[in-house]
Amino acid sequence: MKSNNIIPKNVISRLPRYYRFLGMLLDEGMERISSNELSRRMGLTASQIRQDLNHFGGFGQQGYGYNITQLREQIGHIIGIDNYYNVILIGAGNLGRAIAQHLNFQKRGFNLIALFDSDEKLTGIRIGNFAIRHFSQLEEFCEEHKPTAAILCIPSNAGKDVTQKLIDCNINAFWNFSHYNISDDFPDAIVENVHLNDSLMTLCYNITNSEETP
Amino acid sequence: MKSNNIIPKNVISRLPRYYRFLGMLLDEGMERISSNELSRRMGLTASQIRQDLNHFGGFGQQGYGYNITQLREQIGHIIGIDNYYNVILIGAGNLGRAIAQHLNFQKRGFNLIALFDSDEKLTGIRIGNFAIRHFSQLEEFCEEHKPTAAILCIPSNAGKDVTQKLIDCNINAFWNFSHYNISDDFPDAIVENVHLNDSLMTLCYNITNSEETP
DNA sequence: TAGATTGTTAATCGATTAACAATC
DNA sequence: TAGATTGTTAATCGATTAACAATC
Fold it and tell me: Does the model's pTM come out above 0.85?
């Protein structure tokens, strides 16, 4: 165990993948797995897996490998999957609605509790289990329900104002689908960006530059 | 110039960001920028920017810096933004519809030309400019329109079959929103994965582990 | 020309891989 | 006990940063 150290970002970003693959192994009815076999399945090296896991502690057993159920639970706990942070979604346009309906928040550590939009025409419209609230009700709602995080599905130009208001409501963690760069203005915020445009352009690059190598 | 070499993956993944920031600088009415000033804005080092760009050629001028319009165009060309690859979307559920309507494909190198779904109840429903087609019409459609890429917004368990059919239609590039691991079965496919669940869990980790450091 | 800033080489840093002793 | 496989240290590799000569 050396959990006192700082965990490299790369390791952290692999944790959800480990969690996901271990879940799949459980579905296959497997009980235990060696770093070698897991590496084969995940396309990593066995060394890397052992190094990664040992940032958090010794979860395996020499001569045996890793107990899948246990390891998955432990990784889940490290991520905090069982904390069920309250999260609200801001911006109930196409993308916002899809995110609200598509994601299984409860399995990923969150509990979606409300949708907000600044467009009055959307107020009251039901999306899944939620009626869209007007953004002006944010403060009141947050005082009562104290959400931890917010999902931003808003246009970039609204980014700063909206984020400021959320931070005023003691929300400090953001899942950001907009191009607005939260950390520039709010360096202490916890931010996870999803830049779909960038991802699409990366695909474009890879297509463009595969054609040139015949 | 040393464009003969292989470009590191990290460099490629930064290209869309460069492109995006340069666009913002243009919007601000700027004409030229030094690697130093750009590094300040993007939160990188000037060294890294110069290194990155020099993988593709010398775009700057000593004593002057970089012409923003030119540099942006050149990066756009490297990505292939002006190739407008035909792309089809498979799976017109919440997420698929949102992607179809939300993304500005034309500005990212693609031209969305059709939506498919295997649910007959959805056939004919209009999403933006498109009527959803039944998946059984895929082959016919592809023969006529020869799409280059497909966006997968389908459940993972349908992944293999759907991908096989798409590959049979000469589609070899995938923007994959599902958990299905395309490269396992089709190692030659060009794949860009978007794992929203993993991203959300990374946010969860960062919240969980910020609380513990008071 | 002098000043600024690139392109590029060298140094550093961090992450991945390999190796192996510890141990179940 | 013998075999398997971990946890961990050491070696390698690659990416980032620093430095500086080239040059606009």
Answer: yes
- Which residue from A203, A195, A143, A192 is spatially nearest to A169, judged by alpha carbons? A143
Given a cut of 90, is residue B59 above it in pLDDT? Answer: yes
Q: How many residues does the structure list for chain B?
A: 214
Residue A151 Cα, gap to closest chain B Cα (Å):
10
Q: Domain residue spans in chain B?
A: 9-78, 84-198
Q: Is the C-beta of residue B45 closer than 7 Å to nucleic acid chain D? A: yes
- CATH topology for A9-78? Arc Repressor Mutant, subunit A (1.10.10)
Are A39 and A45 spatial neighbours (Cβ–Cβ below 8 Å)?
yes
Residue B98 CA and nucleotide D18 C1' are separated, in Å, by 46
* pLDDT tens by residue, A164-196: 999 999 999 999 999 999 999 999 999 999 999
Distance, Å, B51 CA → D10 C1': 30
A134-172 confidence digits (pLDDT tens)? 999 999 999 999 999 999 999 999 999 999 999 999 999
Question: Which CATH number fits the domain A84-198, given the four candidates 3.40.50.720, 3.10.450.350, 2.160.10.10, 3.90.1520.10?
Answer: 3.40.50.720
Say yes or no: Cβ of A56 under 7 A from any atom of strand D. Answer: no
Count of CB atoms within 10 A of residue A7's CB?
16
